[in-house]
Design goal:
The chain is of the alpha+beta class. It has a single domain (1-205), classed as Sandwich (Immunoglobulin-like), CATH 2.60.40. The protein has helices at residues 13-20, 36-47, 64-67, 70-73, 83-94; strands at 2-8, 54-55, 81-82, 100-101, 103-109, 112-113, 118-123, 134-137, 143-146, 163-164, 167-173, 190-192, 198-204. The strands form four sheets. Strands 1, 5, 6, 9 and 13 form a five-stranded mixed β-sheet that branches. Strands 8-7-11-12 form a four-stranded antiparallel β-sheet. A hairpin with a 2-residue loop joins strand 5 (103-109) and strand 6 (112-113). Helix 2 packs across helix 5. Mean pLDDT is 88; it is low at 6-18 and 22-26.
């Protein structure tokens, strides 16, 4: 199993304002186009294996980003996520038209920083093709600034690492080591962006 911890990073505020737009920014990162109603229907189509119109905790294993925020989705407290609840959560996530945020990711494996690991935030397919994957390679302390390709950023922000708002599968690999499949090809790790500038910590066991 992996443990995911998050905390706010105030020092990213200036960069965050550039990404979301402010009076001094000539052009902010364009927000990805996501239709909450269509995305919710697609999520049910992809992951509702028993056909009951809702996603159980067992089915959410395949959608770990949503599973990690179950309490934010499951408004009626029945331990399942229904189509209307998915649409409501996505409406909330995208209502401000935020283009992107900055995320610093720290990875540990068996209690030690995992250096030279490739980290990919893979957007859930039900979001559509506008949300881009973010990636990066950890340094010696296991830390990495994740970012989408520069081509999806305004030219004056091309050197900033930015991540689209969205729900993701997380895949972590290391060329020189064989990490368990539950962290990459058959990942059980997920992430969903939050309001603010969270760091994210993946503590792999």
């Amino acid at each position: 199993m992996s443990k995911v911890l998050r905390r706010t990073a105030p020092f990213l505020l200036i960069g965050f304002m550039a990404l979301t737009g402010c009076s001094h920014s000539p052009e902010a990162v364009r927000a990805p186009k996501v239709d909450p109603t269509q995305a919710a229907a697609k999520a049910i189509e992809l992951y509702d294996k028993d056909g009951d119109g809702a996603l159980s905790e067992t089915e959410l294993v395949k959608c770990p980003g949503m599973r990690g925020h179950l309490t934010m989705y499951d408004k009626n407290g029945n331990k399942k996520v229904e189509q209307e609840e998915i649409a409501g959560r996505l409406t909330e996530l995208y209502k401000h038209g935020t283009g992107a945020t900055q995320i610093i990711c720290v990875v540990k494996y068996k209690g030690r920083p995992l250096a030279d690991a490739d980290v990919v935030l893979e957007p859930e397919p039900y979001l559509g093709g506008d949300v881009q994957a973010a990636r990066g390679t950890t340094n010696g302390s296991g830390s990495v600034d994740l970012g989408i390709p520069a081509e999806f950023l305004p030219k004056h922000l091309a050197k900033i690492k930015a991540v689209h708002y969205g729900t993701y599968k997380v895949r972590i690999t290391k060329p020189s080591a064989s990490l368990p499949a539950k962290y990459n090809t058959d990942t059980e790790i997920g992430y969903e962006t939050e309001v603010g500038n969270p760091n994210v910590y993946f503590d792999l066991k």
